[in-house]
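re the bet — no i am not wrong, look at it urself. input seq straight from the record:
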Amino acid sequence: MTDDSERLRKQREYQRAYRRRQKAIRVPDRDEIARELLHYAVTKNLALGREAELGRLMDAVIDGLAARGYDRNGTSRVFSALVDRYEQGWSFQRRLHLIEAGGDGARKAVGQETDDR
C-alpha cells in the first residue's frame, strides 16, 4: 500500500469513528443545523407575516446557490415549494419520535410536549 493510500484509509477510519461518536452523544452535524435554521427562518417569517423578509431570504439563498452553479429557476421552484409546504403545516426537520436523554430523565425532542406526571 502506498503512503497516500494508507493515509487516506486512516482518514476514512478516523472520520467513520468521529461520526459514530458525534451521533452517539447527539451532536448535530452541519445539515441538522441548516435544517433547523431553514425551519426557523421560514416559519417565523410566515407566522409574523413578514413576506418581504422571507422574499429577501429566498433571493439570497437562490443567488448563493446559483453562484455555486445550481439552476436559478429550478432552485426558485424548489424553495417556493418548500415554503408552500411550510404554509400548509409541514415540518420535515422535526423528528418527534426520537427521545433524547436529558440530565434528569428522558424528554421528548424539541417541539413535543412532555408528560411530567
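see?? The longest strand covers residues 99-102. told u. also Residues 24 and 82 are 30 Å apart (CA to CA). so pay up
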